[in-house]
Amino acid sequence: MTGTPAGGGSVRAGVTRPEHVHLGTVRHVHLGTVSHGHLGTISTAVAPLLHGPFRPARVVAATRYAVHLATGDGELPALAVVTRDAIRLPNALVLPFSSADRPLDLNAPWAGVGAGRVVIGPVRLEPEASWTPPRVQDASSPPDPARIGQATVLLDALAQPLPPPLAPRLTDLRHALRADESSEVRRAARALVGLGPGLTPSGDDILCGALLASRAWGGPLAPLSEAVADATLRTPLLSAALLRHAVRGECVPQAHAFLRALSGEGPPPDLEPAVRELLAVGHHSGGDLARGVLAVGLSRACVATTGDRVDYPLK
User: Fold this and answer.
1) pLDDT band at residue 302 under the 50/70/90 scheme
2) How far apart are CA 172 and CA 192, in angstroms?
């Protein structure tokens, strides 16, 4: 999910560094000089990082769409500085220009955050505005069993299949959720932490979806949260940070729209566009998020309003 365009597709890090980076002023600023700018809007979820004294940070990944910083903060371990056409992660400082105009592959040797600013090498950003990431609300409308079934069919038809090592682990989580046994949910979830390649492994993306759905629909939030409590020790830092945000219900807009569509909230939603928009998040992250959401959705919808079980395949 990290460093990807809003329209989907993975982006390879390490592309040619631009000679100049425009920072919203009337001039181009060479990377060899220090630039100042009251630029971008910072997520309210990570705005506390700007408070307090300035402290060192570390660039852990850089693409034309995003620079990801390790902050050293226990609760907010990562900050993403992204262009306006990137996926709007809940921990993002969003800049007012696109990656086509000003690529962001600033793999600087040093960085820092605090005292009202974010510094990446010679670039200094002082955001004066904030934005609020979508947040899943507790006890929102329950999932519509029919929509859960429709979304499951769409996901099977449109998403990339899970790699073989992940498929049985997801099945284990689905069975544990269906049984509604906290210890089994915790065990199955822990087996997914860090499973898969990349900065946001598929197992973590599945768990992000399950956490969001559990908060929205009254699922087993406590055992899932306990399973990812030590994620910073077991998975890449950027993925561990997104798991922390998911525990709090903070997510990308596409995941929020998908959950609303499954609940049938507001005007009659069109489910297929919501599925397609979520699948466009990253190379695999959107599909894996959807799998986690549906794993919980299936367990919540297994008893219909009449009391009869609604059986969908747990494959």
Assistant:
1) low
2) 10
Show the tokens assigned to 46: 């990570």
Q: pTM of whole model > 0.90?
A: no
3-state secondary structure the chain: CCCCECCCCCCCCCCCCCCEEECCCCCEEECCCCEEECCCEEECCCHHHHCCCCEEEEEEEECCCEEEEECCCCCCCEEEEECCCECCCCCEEECCCCCCCCCCCCCCCCEEEECCEEEECCEEECCCEEECCCECCCCCCCCCHHHHHHHHHHHHHHCCCCCCCCHHHHHHHHHHHHHCCHHHHHHHHHCCCCCCCCCCCHHHHHHHHHHHHHHHHCCCHHHHHHHCCCHHHCCCHHHHHHHHHHHCCECCHHHHHHHHHHHCCCCCCCHHHHHHHHHCCCCCHHHHHHHHHHHHHHHHCCECCCCCECCCCCC
> What is the average per-residue pLDDT within 169-190?
97
Collect all residues with Cβ–Cβ distance below 8 Å to 181 and sequence separation of at least 6.
none
Q: What is the pLDDT of residues 102-136, one digit of tens each?
A: 998 777 888 999 999 999 998 999 998 999 999 99
